[in-house]
Amino acid sequence: MIYLDNAATSRRKPYSVYAAMLKYSLINGGNAGRGGNGLSLGGINTILAAQDSAAQLFDMRDESNVVFTLNATYALNMAILGTLEPDDHVVVTQMDHNSVLRPAALHGNYSVAKADKSGYVSPLSVRKCIKPQTKLVVCTHVSNVCGTVQNVAEIARIAHEAGALFLLDASQSAGSLEVSVNKIGADLLACPGHKGLMGPMGTGILCIKDPEKVRAVIVGGTGSESESIRQPSSMPEKFHSGTVNTPALAGLKKSIDFILREGVDVIGEHEHMLNTRLRENLKNISNVKIYGRNDTGITAFNIKDIPSEETAMMLGEKFIIRAGYHCAPLAHKALGTDKTGAVRVSFGYFNTIKDVERITDAVYKIANGAS
Ligand SMILES: Cc1ncc(COP(=O)(O)O)c(C=O)c1O
User: Fold this and answer.
1) Which of 26, 76, 89, 102 has the most Cβ atoms closer than 10 angstroms to its Cβ?
2) Continuous segment of H or E residues that includes residue 178
3) At 2, phi and psi to the nearest 5?
4) Is any atom of ligand 1 closer than 6 Å to the C-beta of 257?
């Protein structure tokens, strides 16, 4: 089996991730912040350590403003719905994932900035969507469909010029590209722990520069200020309602530390090198159409006009790739694949050139059979 679906989740993690999860579960196992006992305090220390590592990776000055969530979807919903008041307007883009589009639609007052055929959202197209009531601009850093990178620093600048906040969806860039909230100008950053960060499933991150600007949309037990019926304003408790997935955070800390040690640039260059080789190979196969830009470790393609799901079936069980619409219907409209979907190959740090050659051979066979 050849795993080429790292944009969905990183199947292989550094061994230290599994070891840390096991260690926390076997040796500690207590509920973080629930009492003054050693197990509970050990849980708090685990969360603090994970916050430290994430703050370092994303250049967050105050690590207590790093919040852990179940996944990127929860982080994005908390950021979008927690920022907007009923009359506020939000700008999203055509390349955004349903985890951005659906909360924006739920809010109601939103505009969608258009992308071109390569999946690029020009900052100008974002500027055109700005209204006097715009409170928030959201943009995906890297398209999960075709890998195109957006000029998010310029989009953040436009948002700030209009007096709005900028929320970066770093789901496909975290762990593969340098993501500094300060250099980009992101007021909020959301990402999963289980994709490029190579942490466990059931983890996500929300970085909030100014927590006073975001309401908690999920409230409840935090283990602190229990005598009050109001949600605490202290961080990260304001956004940590209910039991935190502490064993997974022990693992996430280790995966982020692995990335910090290896270097995001080294990881990103490896994934991009594999992607470049794949795209060069596919260009030489007639009947194959490639979408988007060669910016990262993600390539989307189709063979002739064959629906992508059929191509995936022909590739068989040996290749774990993703066909269809990737929870990003508007992105497929921009790329012109709204009728067929697309086959997506997404590389991770543990893929090799051999994997590229094997998927190339398989596509070659299907394309020739189909000609
Ligand atoms: C760009 C983008 N945003 C958000 C998400 C949602 O991530 P999660 O599954 O962790 O909620 C994904 C997942 O594919 C994604 O690619």
Assistant:
1) 76
2) none
3) -120, 115
4) no
Q: What is the pLDDT of residue 197?
A: 98
Residue of minimum CA distance from atom 15 in ligand 1: 171
Q: What is the mean pLDDT of residues 319-348?
A: 97
Average pLDDT over residues 174-179: 98
Where is the domain boundary, 262, 287, 303? Answer: 262
Final residue before a domain boundary, out of 230, 262, 294: 262
Q: In this predicted structure, what is the pLDDT of residue 370?
A: 57
- Tell me, in angstroms, the distance from the centre of ligand 1 to residue 190's CA: 9
CA 327 / ligand 1 centre spacing (Å): 8
* CATH classification of the domain holding 84: 3.40.640.10
pLDDT at 62 over 70: yes
Average pLDDT, the chain: 97
Tokens encoding 201:
């499933």
Mean pLDDT of 72-88: 98
pLDDT tens-place string over residues 188-221: 999 999 999 999 999 999 999 999 999 999 999 9
Look up tokens 């979807």; give the residue.
73
Residue 144 in contact with ligand 1 by CB distance below 6 A: yes
> Which amino acid, 5?
D
Does position 316 have pLDDT exceeding 80, yes or no?
A: yes
Of 95, 271, 68, nearest to 189 by C-alpha is 68
- Residue 293 CA to ligand 1 centre (angstroms): 20
For the chain, the first-to-last Cα distance in angstroms comes to: 27
Q: Tell how far the Cα of 170 is from the centroid of ligand 1, in angstroms.
A: 9
Domain of residue 58 covers: 15-262
User: Among candidates 197, 213, 246, 210, which has minimal Cα distance to 29?
Assistant: 246
Ligand 1 binding pocket includes 73 (Cβ within 6 Å): yes
Work out which ligand 1 atom sits closest to the CA atom of 96: 1
